[in-house]
Amino acid sequence: MIIAIDGPAASGKSTSARQVAMQLDFLYLDTGAMYRCVTLAFIEQGISLTDKNAVESLLNSIDVNLTEENGEPTAYLNGENVTSRIRSAEVTSAVSPVSAIPEVRETMVRLQRKIALHSDCVMEGRDIGSVVFPDADVKFFLVADSEVRAKRRQDDLRKLGEEKSVEELVKDIEARDVYDSTREHSPLQKAEDAIEIDTSQMTIDEQVSKMIEIVNQKREKTKNK
Predict the structure, then answer these.
(1) Would you state the pLDDT for residue 187?
(2) Domain assignments of the chain as residue spans, ordered by start
(3) Beta strands across the sheet bearing 195-198
(4) Which pLDDT value is given to residue 222?
(5) Among the CATH numbers 2.102.10.10, 3.40.50.720, 1.10.238.10, 3.40.50.300, which is that of 2-218?
(6) Is a pLDDT exceeding 90 seen at residue 56?
């Protein structure tokens, strides 16, 4: 069973997806973390987004591995734990342009499909229900008010020792929304059959409970067919 959770930045995708996967005993796959790992590699190696040869060389040599350690999702890039570094403001500001590169998306989508091939999986990102798994069993699309999302992002950055005002973050988030939803390849968009959930006034527990309820209803219907 594939559960797809899409939506814009800081709408609650990662936290919800992780808890839904844990409660259902499904594999959790944070596709955003995969793109962040690739973005970090671009930054560290100083690769230009327009240098096709360099991009292809990096994608052929890169090793991205998502795992769980002490109950926490952990990201490895070429064998190095980069969990904190991929959440930095520098990576956040660069991830959309890197993610828009067709070769990057093709490589990541191929890897995502391979990982989920033999597992019940909760996968979250921006194009899971529309592109990666258009036939996913259940699709969710999470949304939230820009200011609420900015405050969530501010909390994340503070944990990394970085500081940005809510006003700055609202501008960043809204600019990223426009970029992600208008890019040529695999834009951020709600799949026609996705269930939209506005998380602005919901706690994590509330949104997870709602999603679990919907998934269980789907499983019950499938079982009774």
Answers:
(1) 87
(2) 2-218
(3) 27-30, 121-125, 2-6, 138-143, 195-198
(4) 82
(5) 3.40.50.300
(6) yes
